[in-house]
Amino acid sequence: MPYPQTDWTDYVPQYPLRVRLVDNGDGTFNLVPEPGEIIQEGTPMSATNFNNMEKGIGAAAALADALFIQALLLLGHSRYSLDELDDKKLDATGKAADASKADKLGTARSITIAGAATAAAVNFDGSQNITITVTALDPTKFSSAAPVNKGGTGATDAAGARSNLGVPSNGDLANAVIFEDAKRSVDQAVQRDLEERLITAEAQIAAMGT
User: Fold this and answer.
1) Are residues 26 and 92 both part of a single domain?
2) Cα-atom radius of gyration of the chain, to the nearest Å?
3) Range(s) of the domain holding residue 139
4) Is residue 5 part of a domain?
5) How many domains are contained in the chain?
6) How confident is the model at residue 156 (pLDDT cuts 50, 70, 90)?
């Protein structure tokens, strides 16, 4: 499709520089053009006309690039041949701008893991497999609690964790200590009572023998 050229003409008034001074009544003035007779309207400097010009320049540049690439190919300054142009789009340097597949990325990318698990960044350019090693875990960012059979607590709070793991609470531990102390005191009292009874019995037996 041919480029639609714009036939630019000048704006030609009878008095190009003549203006009228209008007092706004607030200490300011407006300059109102007084061109007189308009001899020639001229071509409007509009977005439509300027964009048409931009499109024409862009199309001309693209055509120049294509011709330059073809010249490179014909002169043997590219690693591609003209027969390969069907499945490759070449840029102005004769290199493939995109293709159906690639063995390596033009620019390596850095891949990392963040969030509940973190890992050091590893560069990836597609030429070989990579391994990302997790170096730390943040349980506060887990989407759910790890189950007990997977090494977790299966709970989101301390009370639930103790319950799931069968660990007594602080209150239960305190009660157990009190119970053990009381049981020990009772056992000691019983032991003392038995010892006193034994001493009494021995004294009575000794008295009967005399």
Assistant:
1) yes
2) 48
3) 107-143
4) no
5) 3
6) low
- pTM for the full model? 0.31
Question: Are 16 and 87 contained in the same domain?
Answer: yes
Asked whether residue 133 falls in the same domain as residue 189, the answer is no
Token digits of residue 190: 């019983």
Type of residue at 190:
V
Question: 120 and 157 share a domain?
Answer: no
- Claim to verify: residue 33 and residue 90 sit in the same structural domain: yes
Element (H, E) at 32: strand 29-33
Q: Is residue 1 part of a domain?
A: no
Are 77 and 98 within 8 A, CB to CB? no
Task: Give the residue carrying structure tokens 């597609």.
Answer: 126
- Strand 117-124 versus strand 12-13 pairing type: unpaired
Residue 70, class by beta-carbon neighbours within 10 Å (0-12 exposed, 13-18 middle, 19+ buried)? middle
The distance between the two most distant Cα atoms of the chain, rounded to a whole number of Å, is 161
Helix (H, G, I), strand (E, B) or coil at 113: strand
Whether residue 3 is contained in a domain is answered as no
Q: Specify the residue for token string 């103790």.
A: 162
Tokens of 152: 């977790």
Alpha carbons 126 and 111: distance in angstroms, whole number: 12
Which residues, other chains included, contact 97 with Cβ-Cβ below 8 Å and sequence gap of 6+?
89, 90, 91
Q: Which residue has 């009874």 as its token pair? A: 197
End-to-end CA distance of the chain: 145
CA 49 – CA 46 distance, rounded (Å): 5
Q: What is the pLDDT of residues 169-184, one digit of tens each?
A: 777 777 777 888 888 8
| Domain membership flag for residue 6 | no
